[in-house]
């Protein structure tokens, strides 16, 4: 994938952020996937504040971010051989391992579960923070519950404003979709949420096929169908129907935003706003949440899109688009 310039942190910013974490405050931090809303993982009051700020139900478990694979054993009861292998191969990187919860992890962070999700983010600013803090940082994506995850510091400021004590700006996120969550508690791992590490990469390392749960049922706490949703309603159609569907809805009075598949880039679309998607799935994943935010900002009330082929990063993109198009909660 095309790499983007990596922003490193000023020492003074890392010191400030570390102080905020030690005092029980909240720090927004860049990762390679999306921005996180971080708190000291071992401070139950600080962890609870994350849920308040996000408007997230307290039963939705968080991910504990640590500074290196060598610290994994401090946060979980035991590290099975497959988990060790995956950690060594993919960390730092967009892979989260679910394992049995260690004593250090408060139940506030796991939504009451006896398992805990852990990852080492691949971003120089996040790694500098974790190294200076010398502890674990629980961080969900730094957005309000159910909405689109932030991939720039400006997205975080626009969405959370003063509710965050300090925002570390690490530039735009390189991967753009969240980490792949793998249940590594059993013999054969399974993918709970597709993300930045592809199923193909995992299977190549493990040498066996992995189960990917269907998106049609809520199986894991915090994996509701209407997650990752922009304000505008999202409608999914076959790629060759995107243009016609968009033009029809526009004619019917909608302000239509279009995520136009690269194969149809030459079409002129009579709609309110059109984003022509990159051909590369890496660039599509990197841009996805920004595209959805842009269409919201341009005043669209309906977004017409189609699913990419569900291989490689396409699996994570399709998962997020399905959830964006899923039924909205009425509460
Ligand atoms: O890339 C990412 O994973 C980003 C960055 C900030 O690291 N974080 C992120 O966090 O996406 P969040 O809170 O938006 O999503 C974490 C998801 C939860 O919704 C839940 O589904 C799953 O992780 N999770 C956490 N702990 C779990 C556990 N013990 N068992 C099963 N799933 C768990
Ligand atoms: Mg999230």
From TrEMBL:
Keywords: ATP-binding, Cytoplasm, Nucleotide-binding, Nucleotidyltransferase, Transferase, tRNA processing. Residues 11-197 form the YrdC-like domain. GO terms for molecular function: ATP binding; double-stranded RNA binding; L-threonylcarbamoyladenylate synthase; tRNA binding. One of its GO terms (cellular component) is cytoplasm. InterPro entries: DHBP_synth_RibB-like_a/b_dom, Sua5-like_dom, Sua5/YwlC_C, Sua5_C, T(6)A37_SUA5, TC-AMP_synthase_SUA5. One of its GO terms (biological process) is regulation of translational fidelity. The keyword Cytoplasm applies. It is found in: Cytoplasm. Belongs to the SUA5 family. Required for the formation of a threonylcarbamoyl group on adenosine at position 37 (t(6)A37) in tRNAs that read codons beginning with adenine. This is Threonylcarbamoyl-AMP synthase.
């Amino acid at each position: 994938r095309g790499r983007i310039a990596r922003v490193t942190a000023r020492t003074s910013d890392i010191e400030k952020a570390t102080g905020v974490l030690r005092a029980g405050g909240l720090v927004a931090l860049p990762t390679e996937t999306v921005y996180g809303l971080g708190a000291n993982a071992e401070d139950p009051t600080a962890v609870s504040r994350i849920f308040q700020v996000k408007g997230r139900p307290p039963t939705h478990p968080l991910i504990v971010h640590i500074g290196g694979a060598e610290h994994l054993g401090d946060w979980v009861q035991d590290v099975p051989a497959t988990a060790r292998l995956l950690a060594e191969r993919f960390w730092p990187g967009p892979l989260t391992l679910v394992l049995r919860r260690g004593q250090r992890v408060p139940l506030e962070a796991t939504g009451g579960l006896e398992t805990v999700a852990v990852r080492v983010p691949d971003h120089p600013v996040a790694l500098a923070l974790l190294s200076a803090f010398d502890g674990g940082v629980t961080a969900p994506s730094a957005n309000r519950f159910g909405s689109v995850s932030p991939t720039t510091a400006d997205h975080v400021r626009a969405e959370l404003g003063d509710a965050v004590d300090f925002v570390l700006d690490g530039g735009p996120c390189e991967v753009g979709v969240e980490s792949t969550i793998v249940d590594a508690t059993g013999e054969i791992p399974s993918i709970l949420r597709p993300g930045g590490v592809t199923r193909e990469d995992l299977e190549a390392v493990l040498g066996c096929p992995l189960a990917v749960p269907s998106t049609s049922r809520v199986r894991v706490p915090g994996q509701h169908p209407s997650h990752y949703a922009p304000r505008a309603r999202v409608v999914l159609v076959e790629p060759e129907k995107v243009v016609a569907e968009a033009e029809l809805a526009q004619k019917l009075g909608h302000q239509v935003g279009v995520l136009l598949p690269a194969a149809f880039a030459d079409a002129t679309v009579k709609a309110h706003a059109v984003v022509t998607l990159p051909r590369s799935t890496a660039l599509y994943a990197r841009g996805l949440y920004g595209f959805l935010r842009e269409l919201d900002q341009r005043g669209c009330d309906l977004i017409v899109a189609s699913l990419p082929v569900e291989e490689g990063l396409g699996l994570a993109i399709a998962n997020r688009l399905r959830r964006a198009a899923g039924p909205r909660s009425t509460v």
